[in-house]
Amino acid sequence: MNKAIILGAVGLASISAASPWVLGTVAEQQFANAVEEIKQSETAQLTLKESTFERGYASSVAKMVFHYDMTEYELPSFSMVVESQISQLPIASNPTGIYFFQLTSEDKIYFEDLPEETQALLNEYMGDVLLSGYSHVNVFGNGGTELSSNAIFFEDESAQSKVEISPIKIAYKGNVEGTDGKVTLSLDTLNLSDITGSITLNGTHFDSVLAQDPSGLMVGSSAMNVSELKLVSPTLPLTLKDMVMTTNTEVVEEKLNTQVSYSIADIMSPIPVTTANYDIELNGLSKEALDLLEELNGQSEEYVMASLSDRQYLANLLNAVMKPGLELNQELKLTAFGGQVFADVDVKFLGLDDPESLMKQPGPEAIMKAINAYQANVHLKADNVAIMSTPAAPAIAQYIEQGLVVQTDTEVSSKILLKEGKLTINEREIPMEAVMQGLAAQLAEQ
User: Fold this and answer.
1) Cα(168)–Cα(163) distance, rounded to whole angstroms?
2) How many H helices and E strands in the chain?
């Protein structure tokens, strides 16, 4: 029994002695992989200026310096430093927990190369770091990070201005590549005020779950909640309560579907709108189109404008985007003028042999061909009490007489359908010749 205990103790001591070297090797490799990933996603405005890993036995120091080139926007360029003091001991602890055979680190993010006056101002009111916190990661590259900022308070009595921002808290749990994980951000209060008014933000919380689809596209969902936004202004006092924005992306048949939703539960302002909901879907966007758009992302304004001015590039982008099945669906719900207002617009692209034909020959034949490539369904309605309180009220009787609007005891509505080149409003066909002539005239002007 004693021999077994001795052998076990020797084995444990051997593992403990070797693990810092093993964990150090893992840390250095993970750092190298992260650097390679970052370099592949550099843009004209953001580059990895410096990356160093100072390897030690029980601890190491990792450092990345990101350079932001803001000259295009007539702003001074600057650098942001991400620095981590890494512990490679077999058992380690920090304020986030106790970890066995994991890398742990104390992290800080701060600015460099800022104008001297700007840096001094930030140091005075934000401290010498932008964010600080702790991380942990296992040998498989999974872990988490918790960061927070300092509270910010600034007051200028002569200008009667004040800035109050509670600590911002950021947490991430997932893999080190950032291709599969969850991000949360919270901000309790933000208050900006001066002699002209104030803006107050209370209870901001953001959640995002991301994963990489086998196609290589990033998919997931996110939600941002703001309990209250209050604007005090002599021209437009405004209070918004329980604001929510959600997004969801998924890949269906190797095409990206995206849904975004906005809602405000309570609106208090001189404008007669008390609640609002807006949903938008863009479905069927091809990976080819996303690759072309990604190519433009982060490039300089001159590069983007030159690309969009290039006829061949624009044709390639148009062909990539306009694939059969592309859909744009929108829905708007308002409580306004004492009633409900509703709008639903669904547009689907059925397919076009040559999407460039409209650019090449912008005439009636090309326009008709383009119209046949689309199917659209529009539904508009409003409570009588709401529509009769709007500036459109005097014209309603005329639209009802023409059949463009249908009225019941409770609401007015209109249903518009574009299908197989035919346009109908409340099942009444509208001659396409007039529509085509109007489109042709606009294209001729352009």
Assistant:
1) 14
2) 10, 24
